[in-house]
Amino acid sequence: MATNVAENRRLLSAPQLPECDGPKLKAFPHKNSRITWIEWINQECAQYGSGGQGYVFKVEINSRIYALKVFKFFKPSTYRNTLGPIRGGNVTDLELGFQTDPFYAECRAYAQIEARRESQGLKRKDIADCYGFLALTKADEEVLGEYGIDLWDDIPADDVYRKTSKGSPVRALVKEYIGEDVDMDEKTRKRMLAGIKWMNRNGILTNDVRAENFKGGYLLDFGLSWTKPHCLWRNTSRYRMSAVLTVDLRMFEEMIDEMGLGIRRSPRLLYQ
Fold first, then answer.
1. Which of the chain's ends, N or C, has fewer CB atoms near its CB within 10 Å?
2. 136-161 pLDDT, tens per residue?
3. Helical spans, DSSP H, in 24-177
4. In the chain, at which residue ranges do the beta strands (DSSP E only) sit?
5. How many CB atoms lie within 10 A of CB 271?
């Protein structure tokens, strides 16, 4: 996310994003097609304070059903304080924005997933598909307004970034729509775990493994993910990274245990 409206408009018209080192997601091929809004999928989660990165809708585009995730606006310097004065000096606000903004975090994760699937010739699918990004039209933004959605509500009204960037185009990702859920049997549990381990081996930390982020046994949310190369990954101490690198497996075990389906095991370190 840039710091002014014109630059944000330019970014959303690019053929791929984000404009930083690492994987880049392509624009949705039918980004200029009309969107038919069918249903607000995560409305209940949003009302109770979860799903804070954005809003997910069931939509139709060119006679095909998709899940459309519409992202809240995000201040690029949000994570600067976590870096501290020394490490923070090595990272620009632009780099922070492109690698920690949930919209760009998902772009990078999905691009990495697509590239690694292709290079490895994988046919098995453990993660739901993403078909690209797009900017909403003013008419689509009016639809969000009718739902009572404020995409700026995480940033104070008097914040300089909000004042200079208000009016920027709304960002969204077009994803595979999974309407039916599945029972959490042993086969599904193994497939979900295999997907997480595969992402970890391929340079993606999801950092947010929770039951509400799965549908049909597929992980759907990468808004908090770190995908190599990543400024926080690069600037986190070796001591802390020893815990960070196992967070996905620990969160998965906790999720399964909460559902009464798991046996606690110490996760193995997957990274070198």
1. C
2. 999 999 999 999 999 999 999 999 99
3. 43-47, 80-88, 93-100, 102-120, 138-146, 160-165
4. 16-17, 25-26, 35-40, 54-61, 64-71, 130-135, 171-176, 204-205, 214-215, 218-219, 226-227
5. 14
What CATH number belongs to 5-258? 3.30.200.20
Torsion of CA 94, 236, 115, 125, to 10 degrees: -120
Query: What does the alpha-carbon distance between residue 16 and residue 94 come to, in Å, rounded to a whole number?
Result: 16
For tokens 């070796």, name the residue: 238
Distance between CA atoms of residues 215 and 221, nearest Å: 10
151 is written with which tokens? 């995409």
Phi/psi of residue 162, each to 5°? -65, -40
pTM score: 0.92
CB 25, CB 111: distance < 8 Å:
yes
**CA proximity to 223, closest of 136, 160, 130, 140:** 130
Dihedral through CA 40, CA 46, CA 48, CA 53, nearest 10?
Answer: 160
Tokens of 60: 């139709």
Residues across the chain: 272
Examine residue 18 and say whether the peptide bond preceding it is cis (omega within 30 degrees of 0).
Answer: yes
Indicate the domain borders of the chain: 5-258
pLDDT tens per residue across span 202-232: 999 999 999 999 999 999 999 999 999 999 9
